[in-house]
Amino acid sequence: MEKLPKDQTFYDYFPGSHVSTYLEAFSKHKLFSGKTLADRIIFNSHIKHVTKAGNTWTISTEPSTSFTCEKLIIATGLTSTPNLSSFPTTSFTPPLIHTTPLAANVPLLNSQSINNVAVLDGSKSAFDAVQILYSMKKSVTWIIRTSGQGPAFLATPNAPWPLKNSHEIISIRLLVDSIFKVIDLMWKCVAMFDRDENINKLELGRPLYWSSDGLAVYNAEGMWDSAVKATILRNEVEWAEGNELVLESGKRVNCDAVVAVTGWSNTYPMFDDELAMGLGLPMLPEKAQEGGKEAEEWETPLKKADAKVVETSPRLANLPKHQDRKPKSTPSRLYRAMLPITGDIDRSIAFVGAVGSAQSLNIAEIQALWVAAYLSKKPELPTEKKMRQEVALSTAWIRRYLGDGYNFILEHLQYMSMLMQDLGLNDMRKGGGWKEMFVPYTSAD
To answer: For residue 260, what pLDDT is reported?
Structure first.
């Protein structure tokens, strides 16, 4: 990938369009058995159903086309199924736009018929949406629900050592409390939350260490200045009617459009409930069979795993009293977050991209190697009992530490090392010694 000129970057951060251009060129630059990667991609195909009969997987798509295969990799990741707003909108007339098609809706939002826009929730994409709307000279009401984790953490892009990439230093474990207090304070100073009562509502809802989502980088000039121009409300939307959002407080917000930054579902709707449960995939709570055989089989392993988590990580025994979070889905039962421990005795299916992280690109590369080896039946897997114990341990840890989250803010380095060890590769990418303890890992490693 070519390096952009300084005037097109922000502290070495570059626009997503630059990555897209690179990936498109990469997909066309080399032939594999007479075809490029681009030649093998079928665009504009939405997967409706995935089924299995014998040793054959069948994928049904829209438009009505079917494909069959003996080996299947599901790489839909965590940003393919939008979470739609849950409040009633029966009589609501303005357009309600999820961030997925936000770019396609820029002409609509920039039109003269749209003056007042409501932005829902507080992730990094919400900051981006507010900045885009402010550049269009729109009046923005930014509504961040109180039942979530609150606004995103926006890291400063030019932090000095040892704060730069501090979560990538193994020795951080020795100083975890003090250094993360410093990081929290540093980010608050950048935002200047005390400048007025409005922007104070973007104050972080919890310490960084206890956040399972919303970690991002302040990567555009004037982002905080745009944010302070919006009318910021910390409230829940109860329902929408006419051209108004009705909040839990009773306040009514008039709007010509709504941008819903409501995130994504980590479920796999292309599988029917029975197959999804058999593969150990996360499911919507209302679709899971509460108290069924599956839950009973996991009850004892989870109790033992929870006791082990508390024993090995005492700080997780007494959790801080943050806002309770209802699970968005049942737990994932995938071993190494990639493969079923039941229902796939022929090693014919694997899942990649189901781990949220600030290092998604590096994780994707290692997962690709791991899955290629797995489908080739090369790495020797533990027994089903051992894999079940490992899955129970990760589930218990996630419940205590991340709540309903599946983003690894601090642990992705250990996750990548674990996968590399499985493959028999050297996971000491700094060469071992003192560098492993005190030098941050970067993408080059």
So the answer is: 96
Tokens encoding 235: 């409230």
Q: State the angle between helix axes of 384-401 and 293-312 in degrees (0 to 180), rounded to the nearest 10.
A: 70
The CATH classification number of 81-264 equals 3.50.50.60
pLDDT at 414 over 60: yes
- What type of residue sits at position 24? E
CA dist 213 and 236 (Å) reads 19
- Condensed to tens digits (0 to 9), the pLDDT of residues 215-234 reads 777 777 777 788 888 999 99
pLDDT tens digits along 187-204:
677 667 777 788 788 877
Closest by Cα among 317, 316, 355, 321 to 335 = 355
On whether the CB atoms of residues 151 and 418 are closer than 8 A, the answer is no
Unique residue bearing structure tokens 């006791």: 307
Q: What are the structure tokens assigned to 35, written together?
A: 């075809």
CB-based burial, 141-167: b 16+ in 10 Å, e otherwise? bbbbbeebbbbbbbbbeebeebbebbb
* DSSP one-letter code for 251: -
Phi and psi at residue 234, to the nearest 5°:
-105, 100
Q: Which residues contact 115 (CB under 8 A, 6 or more apart)?
A: 138, 139, 256
Angle at 148 between CA 132 and CA 99, to 5 degrees: 30
Q: First-to-last CA distance in the chain? A: 16
Task: With 0.90 as the threshold, say if the pTM is over it.
Answer: no
CB 427 within 8 A of CB 417: yes
Residue 244 identity (one-letter amino acid): E
pLDDT over threshold 90, residue 247: yes
Token pair for residue 206?
């919890």
Per domain, the residue ranges of the chain are: 81-264, 267-438
**How many Å apart are CA 133 and CA 227, to the nearest integer?**
10
Tokens of 61: 């798509």
Cα separation of 441 and 428, whole Å? 10
pLDDT tens per residue, range 361-376: 889 999 999 999 999 9
- Return d(Cα 163, Cα 165) in angstroms, integer: 6
Contact 309, 400 (CB under 8 A): yes
Asked, as a colleague might, if the bond just before 63 is cis with ω within 30 of 0, I would say yes
**Tokens linked to 366:** 């290692």
Q: How far is CA 162 from CA 7, 171, 179, in A?
A: 27, 11, 9
With both helix axes pointing from N to C terminus, report the angle between 360-375 and 412-422 in degrees, rounded to the nearest 10: 20
CA distance linking residue 411 with residue 155, whole number of Å: 18
> What residue ranges in 204-299 does DSSP mark as E strands?
215-217, 231-234, 237-242, 244-247, 252-254, 257-260, 264-265
DSSP assignment string, 290-322: TTSHHHHHHHHHHHHHHHHHHHH-GGGTS---P
